[in-house]
Amino acid sequence: ICPIPSAAPWSVLFHLTFFSINSQLIRQGQSTNLSCSKKKSISTAMHWYRLPLGKDSRLVLVASALEAGKATVEEDLRSHLKSSEIQGDKITLLIEHAFLNDSGTYYCAESETQWLGC
C-alpha cells in the first residue's frame, strides 16, 4: 500500500533513443518532408532535434509528439515547420520555405517514460 501520494518517493525513468535519417540537401526557400519510423513499439513519444552547423553546437528540440496526442513544434519555429502526429509508427516533419538558420543535421528520437513509485 502506497502512503499519501504527495509524500511518496516518485521518480521518472526516461529513455531517449536517437537515430539519424537519410541525408537531404535543400536550398534556402525550398520545402521538404522528413519522415521517421519508430524502432520500438513501446515508445510513448517521438521527437525531432536539430544539430546546427558549427563546432560548439548543441542539439535543439524542434518538435515532439505523444503517442495519443497532438504534435507540438517549438514556438519560434511554428511559422514554417509542421510536425505530424504519430501515425502508426511514423512521424513527419515538414520544413516549408527553409531559412538559413534551419541548417544542420536533423535527428529523430523516440522516448519511453515510466513513472516509478510505490
Could you explain the architecture of this structure?
- Residues 9-118 form the Ig-like domain.
- One of its GO terms (biological process) is immune system process.
- This is Ig-like domain-containing protein.
- Helix content is 0%, strand content 46%.
- The chain has 118 residues and is mainly β.
- It has one domain (23-116): Sandwich (Immunoglobulin-like), CATH 2.60.40.10.
- It has a five-stranded antiparallel beta sheet with strand order 1-8-3-4-5, with no helix packed on it. Strands 2-7-6 form a three-stranded antiparallel beta sheet, with no helix packed on it.
- A hairpin with a 6-residue loop joins strand 6 (81-83) and strand 7.
- It is globular.
- The termini are close together.
Q: Beta-strand percentage? A: over 45%
Order of helices and strands: EEEEEEEE
CATH architecture: Sandwich
Radius of gyration: 17 Å
Question: What structural class results from the helix and strand content?
Answer: mainly beta
What fold name stands as the CATH topology? Answer: Immunoglobulin-like
CATH class: Mainly Beta
The number of helical segments is 0
Total number of domains: 1
Strand order of the largest sheet: 1-8-3-4-5
List low-pLDDT spans.
none
Distance between the termini: 8 Å
| Net shape | globular
Rounded average pLDDT: 81
Keywords: Immunity, Signal
GO biological process, one term: cell surface receptor signaling pathway
Protein name: Ig-like domain-containing protein
Domain Ig-like: 9-118
